[in-house]
């Protein structure tokens, strides 16, 4: 699988987080389209199918990521 350049991943993560912080999903047509585009691109470059999984995958692909820390993916214990 091809890997996106870390600078591209950081930029996409930043754009996605900014759009979400600004509640783009509830905004105008342009904001919603931009959020959808960034979400789609994150999914494509990480080989995932939803934005949450794409964010996790993108962060794990960044240099210095603790790739053995998958606690966010683990099922909660009772």
UniProtKB/TrEMBL annotation:
It comes from the Bacteria. It holds the Pfam family DUF5133. This is DUF5133 domain-containing protein. It comes from Streptomyces albidoflavus.
């Amino acid at each position: 699988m091809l890997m996106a350049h870390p600078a591209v991943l950081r930029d996409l993560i930043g754009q996605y987080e900014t759009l979400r912080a600004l509640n783009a999903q509830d905004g105008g047509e342009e904001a919603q389209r931009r959020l959808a585009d960034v979400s789609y691109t994150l999914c494509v470059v990480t080989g995932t199918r939803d934005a949450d999984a794409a964010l996790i995958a993108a962060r794990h692909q960044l240099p210095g990521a603790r790739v053995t820390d998958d606690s966010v993916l683990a099922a909660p214990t009772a």
